[in-house]
Each structure stands twice: as structure tokens, then as C-alpha cells.
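quick one, 611 residues, struct below
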Amino acid sequence: RRVLLLGEGNFSFAAALCGARGTHVVATCYESEEEAAGRGGAVRSIRRLRDSGAEVVFSVDCTKLKEHFLPGKREFDRIYFNFPHCGRKAGVVKNRELLACFFQSCAEVLAQLGEVHVALCSGQGGTPADQPRREWHNSWQIVAVAAGAGFVLSDVHPFKAETIHGYKCTGYRSQDKSFCVEGALNHIFTRSTPPLCLTPVSCKTQLGSQKVSFQVPQVLVDKINRGFLEVNSSHPVRTIKEKLSAGLSQALPLQNVSSCLPLLHQGHPDGVCHSSVFWVALSPGEAPSTEETSQGLADAVGFSHFGQDTDRDAREGCPIPQQFHLRPSLLPQAQAMTQKGAFSPGTLHVLSGPVFRQCRITPHSMPVFHEMLVVLAASRGTENSCIQMLVDNIKTTVSSLHQATAGVKPSISLQEATSSGAELNDFAAFESQLGEIQHFICLGTEPDPSGSCVGVTRVAPDGLKSSELVVVSASLNLDLLAMLLCGISDWRMLWTSDRRFLQQFPEGELRLFKSFSLYPPSYVHDVSFWLPDGEEFDEVAFHTLARRVSGEMVISIQLRDSFQQPGTGRRSLCYRLTFQSCDRALGCREAAEMQLRFREEIQQHLGVTLR
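---
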């Protein structure tokens, strides 16, 4: 491998590295050879480097690396820059600018899987790893600076000068003097995946007896048809689903429902807020006729109620369009199959797949997740014991998985449905809209042993019961389970395209996740606007626009102020948006551009007037 060392003072660090098997060292400094030779011990280190076959290059500007190496010799597997500094009494701003230009230059000469190592004195980096930690404005803000060039901080550890044979730091205020490296840290950066270029996507799916296509909502373009539950997938959501299925199959015969579950539902789901589902339009000329729909959707799912816009069209005498939305749950499909008698008594039937819900931006609110729905037709009067059997089995499997990954036993509990779903989490709140719930299944792990709702149990309403049978079900959020079991703090990481995520989960094995993007920088922007007169503000649509414009880079939206103008009654709102990525580099300029686009979008789509 080719190793590039920059800003060498007396070349003692480079001399300690040279001679390593399979490593070709290119050691450089900013000064001329004559100036460098004046530093104590430099001549001896340079001689040792050349004797070992290393290259020594002088007058190298770390911000213009491409200019110093021929095209065939520009690619380096590792770049070291120990204790960079502009020299003399340069302040934090100038040193940030130096680092920014340095990282931009590294991007031109670093191998695709290469690393950039930057050692800084205690407190300079501005990350939580620094102890004590400086105030952000007084630090070099190295993670944010590197993000501007497409790098993420993948590791950080103490710089142990005493372990480097012959190393002596020098260059204090551009002099041949040493400086304190106690508490110094080595920051290791890697390339980020490039920004997603999300072009409009059309998706084909089965609707009744025919195939149709529809435009995928922009916020879901990178999440449709990812195949996480397919046979060849090693994604943790599939591993958890397979482990749960294996555990349940020990209690009763189990059958995975192999029929293609429709992505689209028609009409408006009962009890669900109109803005909580993703409405889609079929491609022109592909909408089935009313007769075809009534026949075909017997195999799919239809709802008898229409949404608010349809009701308005009917009142105004306009033709009522056929409304379709992405499935928010697998429960309606299970209910349709139950009515057709598709479930054999005494057999567990498992339905699984992604479901889609428009929701506000919070750490655990997911516009898409993988649902596992377990359905059992059992003798009437045994519903409570059947639910307990399902939950006990799920408890056993989840406890075993968590103990294997974290080494501790989690707390799994049933909470009566008298608890408010909104008090548990957004998943539970939405499930409450879909129909009566018997219990919430809660999983408690450190640091929140009280429990987060990861599933619900239900008994089918009277209309779905035969005289002798009752249908019970348990619905599980596989994504939430994966987060809790594998220590994944951000749901977006489950959908990353970065190969380093799946590399941590060999097929059939769950492990505690180690982030490859540490201490990602965050950027705060405010937006205030006047609301249209006489119209209710759709906050879910506001959050969904933020998701779409930022490519899921907004992690928090907080209402900061609400003002009503005396006399006119006009209402103004002010929101604070926090931009942060969990898996790729996000620089301050890119975040600012997202904020500007968001301001334009809310004017166009929500009819607000910016202040």
C-alpha cells in the first residue's frame, strides 16, 4: 500500500513507519530540503527513509497534492497529517480553512477505500472525544470541515507518541521546538457515499387482475423495492424475521403467505387520517374501470370510504376519481384473506413486507418500515391464551437474540390497550387508528428499560369471526426491533446504501452495530411564514416536504413561535429545522442549500408566505 505523510517536521514519524512490510512510504514537508535539514534529527531520519526505499519530497503544499505527483502515482491508500497548523499564532479560523483545503485536496489523491489520519492536540477537534471539550466556535470543527469535502469520521483514538519509536514532535510556532501532545487524538476519516441523485421512479405492481404502474412518492424513491426480506438478503430485518418464524414454528405449524401482497390499496382506510397515508395516481391510461376494480380488488384490498378531496369533488359535482394509496399496514390484507377463509385453523400464517406511513419527523418515526404480521385462527374462547402463547414465543426469541448481541437480557412486557398509543410512540399511535388493540408489546433495553412499543396484538372484530373460530394476530415492527437489538440509534441507517452497514451483519448473525460515521455535524436553520387565510396548516405535509427536499437529512422540526397579528387575525409560525446525516458527509453549504429549496417548496405546495 502507498502511504503519504504530510507536514513532516523532522521526519521522525515517517522514519518510524518506513520498512513496514508491504508499505511504500512517501514522506513530505512544506519546507525546502535546506530548511528541513536545519531541524534536529531531520538529516538522520531522511537518510534512513531513503536507505529503506521510501520517497522524500520537499516543498509540498498539502492543499495542492494533485500538482506534486504524476498521474500514475497520485493514488494513496493512507494519508497522514500530524498536528497541522498554519504556523506562528494563526487562529482557529485560519486553521479550519487550512483543513478544508487539505481535505478537498485529499479527495483528489486518496484511493476509494483509503483513510485520512489527522492528529490534533487536545481540544482542537471539537468532538465529544476531546476531554475536556472546547466550545464549538473555539474549535477547529474538524468533522464539519471534512464533511465539506465528502469525508466522514470513522474512528478516533488517542495519539500515543510514546509508542512511536524515535518520534519527536516539533514545529511549535514554526520553530524547532516541541509542544504538548498529552491528550492528543488521531482522527481517521473515510470517503462518504456520494449524495443521492433521486430521479422520479415509476413502479409496476399487481392491482387485482392486472399490472399497473404508478409514480413513487419522491420521499420513498430510495426505499421502494429494496428487497431486504428476500432470500438472499443479509439485512438484520430479515434475520430477525427468520429467527422469529423459527421460534413460532416450534409452537404450531407455520406458513409464510407466499401470494404477492399488493402495494396499493384503494379508497380511504377507516379511522386513519387522510394525511397519514401516501396517495398515488396510476399512470395515465392504466386505471382499471369501475367494474374491473370491483372484481379485481377482491384479491387486493379496497376501502368503502373516500378521502377529504374526494368528498369535496362529490359536493362540487365533479367526477369522483379512483383513489389509491401505498399500503400503510398488512392488516387489511389479512382481514380480506380471513373473510375468504384463507387461514387454516391451528396454523400460524405469517405476512411480511414494507408498509408506508406519512408521519412527523422524530427519531423513531419511520415513513416506511417492515411489518411482520402473525395470524392464527383458533377456537372461540381461547383468544387470550393464544395471544399469550404468541407473546411468550416472541419474548423467548427476542430475549435470546438480545442476549447474544448485547450480553444482557431485555425486558419485554405486555401493556393493556387502555394505555394511550400516543404516549408510547408513533408506531403505536398509528396502529390504534387501524382498529381495536388488545395489547402493546414493549421491548425495554438500555438506556430505556421502560420499553418502546414494537408490536401490538389484536382479536378480529365480530364481522370476521365464524361461529366457532376467532382470529388473533400479532403485528411487529421489524425495523424497531432491529434498532433495539443491534444498538442502532437512527432508523435511517437501516436504509443506507453504504456497504459498511451490511458488512457488519453476516448472513444469519446479529451484532451490535458500530457506526462508521462518528459525531456527524448538525446545522440549525429557522423558517417563519404567514399561513393562508382560513386554512388549517397541515403539519404532516410540512414534515414530509422537509423529508423530500433534504433527502431525509432533517432530524428535528420544532415549533419555536406562533403569532397572531392583532386586527387582521393573520397567523404566523416559526419552525426550527436541524439538518444532520447519519451515514454520509453533510457540509454546511449543502445544508444551507437544502434550507433554501425547502423555503421555495413550502411556498409552492403549502401556499404560505415567507417572512
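The chain has three domains: 2-191, 201-284+322-508, 523-610.
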